[in-house]
Design brief:
Helix content: 25-40%
Distance between the termini: 16 Å
Strand order of the largest sheet: 3-2-4-5-1-12-13
CATH architecture: 3-Layer(aba) Sandwich
CATH topology: Rossmann fold
Structural class: alpha/beta
Low-confidence stretches: none
Mean pLDDT: 95
Largest sheet: 7 strands, mixed
Order of helices and strands: EHEHEEHHEHEEEEEHHEEEEE
Strand content: 25-35%
CATH superfamily: Class I glutamine amidotransferase (GATase) domain
Radius of gyration: 17 Å
Number of helices: 7
CATH class: Alpha Beta
Number of strands: 15
Length: about 250
């Protein structure tokens, strides 16, 4: 199955374009187990003392999915600093990792990483929204607004980190991913990461925009409102290639 990466955003008018391909694949995966309705794990990490924020996020993704067709949603929710229980993924047909503080998601997903990868290899689609998209990468950009003390994006986008930080991600795609590209200006952070070689190449995804990567990581499609900003090196040059919305 495919890896679905959404760059954040809250415009409900784009939900059909963003979530229908994922739900379709989840439904196909459920059919292989004899079920007409997929069970989808929705993983959410919320700030301390804001439990309601976690449930609000679950409700939002439930609405986004069920607006495109039948789905059984299994919430897996934990507070920042905690870690999710791998047993919550037992028997699911698809995995959705929500958005929030990316370093907290990186920590929370550590016990589940091998299970998520195994599920995807067995045909379960993965959808990452914002932080969930960044962590799909083999080497994941999780935050920071400085590189060697020099600003590379706005401080508000630092994810509670100062220096640029890159960690091992899930490895579902072999390029780095940054999000809220045009809206927050995070493309420059990815550019700095590629320029200095901490990641080989990457893509910054606009809000309300989907990048769908096939399971062989060699082909992709896009949909939604915005653009993909592909960043790579070619000799001494840094290349940025824009890709407009595609559609399915």
């Amino acid at each position: 199955m495919s890896t679905h990466l959404i760059g954040g955003g809250s415009d409900e008018t784009h939900w059909p374009a963003l979530y229908t391909p994922f739900l379709r694949e989840a439904t196909d995966q459920a059919a292989t187990h004899g079920s007409p309705v997929p069970t989808i794990a929705v993983l959410v990490v919320h700030p301390p003392d804001e439990e309601s924020a976690g449930m609000t996020a679950v409700a939002r993704f439930t609405a986004a999915l069920r607006g495109q067709g039948p789905a059984n949603v299994r919430p897996l929710v934990v507070v920042e600093g905690g870690q999710l229980d791998p047993s919550g993924l037992h028997g699911v047909d698809a995995v959705l990792v929500a958005g929030g503080l990316t370093p907290a998601y990186a920590h929370a997903l550590q016990p589940l990483a091998a299970e998520i990868v195994a599920l995807v290899k067995m045909g379960a689609p993965y959808l990452g929204f914002s932080a969930g998209a960044a962590l799909a990468a083999r080497r994941a950009v999780i935050g920071g607004y400085l590189q060697d003390g020099v600003a590379i994006c706005h401080e508000d986008n630092a994810e509670d980190l100062d220096e640029l930080e890159v960690v091992d991600g899930l490895g579902l795609v072999d390029f780095a991913v940054d999000v809220h590209a045009a809206q927050w200006g995070n493309t420059t952070r990815l550019m700095a990461a590629v320029w200095t070689g901490v990641v080989e190449r990457g893509v910054a995804v606009d809000e309300n925009t989907l990048l769908l990567v096939d399971n062989d990581s060699t082909t992709h499609r896009s949909a939604g409102a915005g653009r993909l900003w592909w960043v790579s090196r070619q000799g001494p040059d840094l290349l940025v290639r824009l890709e407009g919305p595609g559609g399915f």
